[in-house]
Structures are given as C-alpha cells and as structure tokens.
Amino acid sequence: MSEPTATEPVNTGQIKQLLDQHKTKMKMALRVCAHCSLCAQSCFLFNTREQDPIYMPSHKFINSIGRLYKKKGNVDRQALEEISEIAWKRCVLCTRCYCPLGIDIPEMITLARTICRSQNVVNDFSAE
Amino acid sequence: MYYDYIRGPIAWACFAVFIVGMLFQVIRFFTLSRKLGTPDNHLNPNILPPRTKPQFSMATLKSWWHLKGKVSIIGSHPVMLTVTTVFHLTIFILPLFLLAHHTLFDQLWGASFCPLVLSQFWTDLLCIVTFGCLGFFIARRLFLPRVRAITTLYDWAILIMVAAPFVTGFCAIHNLLDYETMIIIHLISVNLLMLTLPFTKFVHMIFFFLNRFFLRSEYNFGAGSRRW
Ligand code: SF4
Ligand code: SF4
Fold first, then answer.
1. What does the DSSP assignment read for A3-43?
2. Is the pLDDT of residue A107 over 80?
3. pLDDT at residue B41 above 80?
4. Least confident of A90-99, B62-71, B171-180
5. What's the whole-number mean pLDDT along residues A46-55?
C-alpha cells in the first residue's frame, strides 16, 4: 500500500489520458443516465445506510467518474481523495446494482478507482 | 410565412438530424460493445447460466417473484415503473395517432398512411394522463431526497422540453391562449426536440432498447449476445 501522498502534485496529463481511453463509454453512461434514481434500492449499501442518497449507485458514479470527466481531469489531490472515498468506501464493486437503462455502473466506479490509483490515492484499509 | 418554414424545410432538416443522429448512436453502441466470448474486464457475463426458454406457470412466476421480482424495479418501485411506462407510451401514441397530425400529413402528401387515428376523447384523455405523469416526475424531483440529490438544471430543462409540445398542442386544440402563438411554440419545441433527441439525455430512448435487448445481463430482456 502506498504511503499518503498529500504533497505530491497530481499528474493531470495522466488522468486526461486515462479519461480519453474510456471517453466514449463514459460520456455515453453519463449522458444516458436519466437521473431517475431507480438504481437506488439495488445497492445493499444504500439500503443498509438508511437510504442515504450518497450511497445510491448513480450518485456514486456521477460524483466520482462524472466529476473527473466534467473537470476534464483537472483535479487536485483533495478532489481525488474525495473521489476515492466514494469509489472505495461507498462501493465494494459487488456488481449487484442494476440500471433500467443498462448503464454499467460498477465499470464507471472501477474507472474512478483506476484513476485514483494512478495518482497513488488509494483507500487505506489499515487506517479503519 | 415563417410558420410554413418551421413546419416545412426546418422540420425536415430536424427530422433528418434525428434519424442520422440515432443511426450514429446505434453504430456507436455496436462498436463499443463486444460479442460475448471476447477478453474480459472486471465483469464476466459469460459465467451467467445459459438462458433457457422461460416456462410460464403459477409456480415459476411465484419463484421468479421471490428470487428476482421482489428485488427488481417491479418490486421496489411499482408506482414509478407504472407511471414511467404509461408516460413513455403516451408520448409516442399521441403524436403518431393524433387527428390533427394526420390532417397535416394529408395536406402535405395528399394521404395519411396510418389507419388508426385518435378520437378527441382519447386525445384529451391521453394528454391529461401525460400531464399527470409529468406532474409525478416533477414531484419526485422536488420532494424525493434521492432524486433531488442528483437533479440538475439539465434535468429540469429536459422535463420542460418534453412537456412543451404536449402542453402547447393541448392549448392549441382547445383554443386556450392565443392559437397562433401556441402553434408556433409547438412547432419550435417539436423541432428542437427532434434535433436534440440523439445528443442529449433523451438518447436513453434508443439506449434503453439497445442495452436491455443486446447486452447479456441478469436483468436484461432476452438472451443478449453482447457485452461492454
Ligand atoms: S444509473 Fe440508471 S437507474 Fe440510476 S439514476 Fe441513472 S438512469 Fe436511473
Ligand atoms: S457495485 Fe457498488 S454501487 Fe453497485 S451494488 Fe455493489 S456496492 Fe452498490
């Protein structure tokens, strides 16, 4: 596990490159999402966390990979840490969520994890 | 004069953009998805049990309900599912089978090709149902925390854009407000809708079918021969 890297500058070029690799699919998922919230109850974390909207699958991918995409990768470490909080602590990638419009939500969250990991921002489970 | 323009060449141009845009999205879906059996990413739909032809009986229905139905959208959001299905059906039925539109086709082409035309009663009823559904969506966006949490101005714009042709059409039919103005707004909003359908959130109208029928997934309809 990497050490905390609070002082390292973020390599936005690398993030952009990763985003570009998956751009079409990501763009499509973000565009197709009708913000209907029908995916909410398919996530066990949403159900067990008093139905807090921040555990809703769409909320998670919109605020992780969606945020990275919107900012075109121009994010700082603080933002990446917030995103990693979503991608690891609010999702275990169990792939049980479903979207009636067929959006592959776990894949979007996986992408957010990949990007965080590329900048050494990972969840430190030992700190729990 | 500009009325003829909006319902003539401009409408045709928007229709052409709609068709080409939708075709582009279909092609994009097929280039982005892969046929089953190609190298994997994080999720392997190949491990799903092969699909067998569904057998319908009380017992299979009951077991389906307990295993899947209860936890699927039918079980968790029955009201929303009903409202959204009705809404999506009415917004297709109304413009396609409306008497006023068929009169227009008659004028343009000398004939209308559709054998089914809605009576005034059915038109009004379906319009009111559509407005009711729109009201339901608005209420969800305003009052349901989970929907509010992901609602943006874009979502409101989408709702207004889809409501505009129906509200103005209804007002025009019943001579509520100024007829001319209503018809002009009606035509502009329809053109705008056609123009934006393939490139905005409305694109879910095609991706719903592509994703749910062509992709192999536990909750999809049919066997599905593709995956992301
Ligand atoms: S991910 Fe799917 S179910 Fe969830 S809000 Fe978006 S469109 Fe609705
Ligand atoms: S993959 Fe993540 S969002 Fe989907 S059900 Fe599992 S924990 Fe919830």
1. PP-TTSPP-HHHHHHHHHHTHHHHHHHHHH-----TTGGG-
2. yes
3. no
4. B62-71
5. 94
Interface contact A107, partner B, CB < 8 A = yes
Closest CA to ligand 2's atom 6: A94
Q: Is the ipTM of this structure higher than 0.90?
A: no
C-alpha gyration radius of chain B: 21
User: What does the pLDDT look like over B139-169, one tens digit per residue?
Assistant: 999 999 999 999 999 999 999 999 999 999 9
How many other CB atoms are there within 10 angstroms of residue A12's CB atom?
A: 16
In angstroms, the separation between the Cα of residue B109 and the nearest Cα of chain A is: 36
Whether A8 is covered by a domain: the verdict is no
Q: Does A66 reside within a domain?
A: yes
* Residue A113: domain span: 20-121
How many beta carbons lie within 10 A of that of residue B141, not counting itself? 18
Ligand 1 site, residue A35, Cβ cutoff 6 A = yes
**Taking Cα atoms as reference points, which of A18, A46, A11, A29 lies closest to residue A99?**
A29
Q: What's the DSSP call for residue B178?
A: -
- Residue B211, chain A, CB below 8 Å: the answer is yes
Q: How far is the CA of B34 from the centre of ligand 1 (A)?
A: 22
Determine the pLDDT at residue A128: 59
| Tokens linked to B214 | 């062509």
Residue written as token pair 């729990």: A128
A4 within domain boundaries: no
In a domain, A1, yes or no: no
Spatial distance between the Cα atoms of A107 and B56, rounded to a whole number of angstroms: 34
Which tokens sit at B122? Answer: 């059915």
Say if pTM beats, i.e. exceeds, 0.95: no
Segment 110-169 of chain B within 8 Å of chain A by CB: 140, 144-152, 155
Amino acid, single-letter form, for residue B32: L
Contact A35 B155 (CB under 8 A): yes
* Residue A115 confidence (pLDDT) above 50: yes
* Residue with CA at minimum distance from ligand 1 atom 6: A33
Number of folded domains in chain A? 1
- In the predicted model, is pLDDT for residue B47 greater than 90? no
